[in-house]
Specification:
mainly alpha; disordered N terminus; 68% helix; globular; 7 helices; 0% strand
Length: 179
């Protein structure tokens, strides 16, 4: 993961070099993860940037440098949750209706049936409750194990299984009803 894999203690690492290496290797993937959770690229970039800043600030407290990516992933998931909560509070405060992504239909000229199906799936994922969406995104996009998902979400492996199963059932039902 990092340039010096022989060290086990994170305090032996230089925070600047370690965070720079992690940033180069994992920034884009973490932004994509946050975008899938937040549906807002600018907010996703802010959440990921905050996660890297927090890691740098707390680097000396990290016991195992190999867990830095897991720390970042958990920070991104938690930061995304906070951003979603803040967004909900702000929306209620200004009495604005939630901005819903209008499903877009590919034009007849493009013939992009695959693109249309992709959008239907993304729209169905966006409609899932937050925990189910997180479990589905982390499992199928992030390709994480149940244990890694549980760590990232801060729940038990059983809860991960439950959220993922409910999410898949909801997706299946939603996509079967789609025209």
């Amino acid at each position: 993961m990092l340039a010096e894999p022989s060290r086990d203690d994170a305090r032996g690492w230089d925070a600047d070099d370690a965070v720079t290496a992690l940033f180069s290797a994992h920034y884009r993937g973490l932004v994509r993860l946050a975008v899938l959770l937040l549906h807002d690229e600018a907010a996703a970039e802010d959440v990921v940037q905050d996660a890297y800043v927090a890691l740098h600030r707390r680097w000396w407290r990290l016991r195992d440098a190999d867990k830095a990516l897991a720390y970042l992933r958990t920070s991104v998931v938690n930061g995304s949750r906070s951003a979603l909560r803040h967004r909900g509070v702000a929306d209620r405060y200004v009495a604005a209706r939630r901005l819903a992504d209008e499903p877009t239909v590919a034009s007849a000229e493009t013939g992009a049936l695959a693109l249309l199906r992709h959008r239907e799936v993304l729209e169905a994922v966006r409609r899932l409750p937050a925990r189910q969406r997180e479990a589905i995104v982390l499992r199928y996009y992030g390709e994480l194990s149940e244990a890694e998902i549980a760590d990232a979400m801060g729940v038990s492996k059983g809860s991960v299984k439950s959220h993922a199963a409910r999410g898949m059932a909801a997706l299946r039902e939603s996509l079967e009803l789609a025209p």
